[in-house]
Amino acid sequence: MPQGLRYGRANRHRGEVEALIDGERRILCLTLGALAELETAFAADDLTALAERFASGRMKAADMIRVIGAGLRGAGNVFSDEDVAAATVEGGIAGHAAIVADLLTATFGGFKDGATPDP
Fold first, then answer.
1. How many CA atoms lie within 13 A of 117 on its CB side?
2. Does the pTM exceed 0.85?
3. Residue 115: CA count within 13 A, CB half-sphere
4. Which of 4, 53, 54, 61 suits 119 as a labelling partner, its CA being 20 to 30 A distant?
């Protein structure tokens, strides 16, 4: 089981969010490095293309795993995407979608028309 490196309250001014993952409070943050990881994973040409992809509100389960994993690693947690895929979150898939929506909102400042990621 992976061990988190950081615990505590999220600082929204730094784009951090807090989520209960596998029964532990964890901080997630899409740092510049985490965003670069997602650009590569989603074959996005730049941050604008990445934000536009997320703003569509449509995500596959694999997309949510990548975003949550990048957010965990960006905040210093030791989690692989495989660890994220096996992790439990209260609320099941809706709980995962809520974490992704919160993280993307903290990073990009919200989406047009209030769109949030749909599983």
1. 27
2. no
3. 16
4. 4
Specify the length of the chain in residues. 119
Pairing of strands 16-21, 24-29: antiparallel
Tens of pLDDT, residue by residue over 54-102, are 888 888 999 999 999 999 999 999 999 999 999 999 889 999 999 999 9
Q: Give strand pairing partners of 25.
A: 20
Condensed to tens digits (0 to 9), the pLDDT of residues 46-65 reads 999 999 998 888 889 999 99
Could you give the 3-state DSSP secondary structure of residue 88? coil
Q: What residues pair up with 20 in beta bridges, in sequence order?
A: 25
Report the C-alpha gap between 14 and 53 in whole angstroms: 22
Q: Which residue, among 73, 80, 82, 68, has the nearest Cα to 20 in the 3D structure?
A: 68
Distance CA 52, CA 47 (A): 8
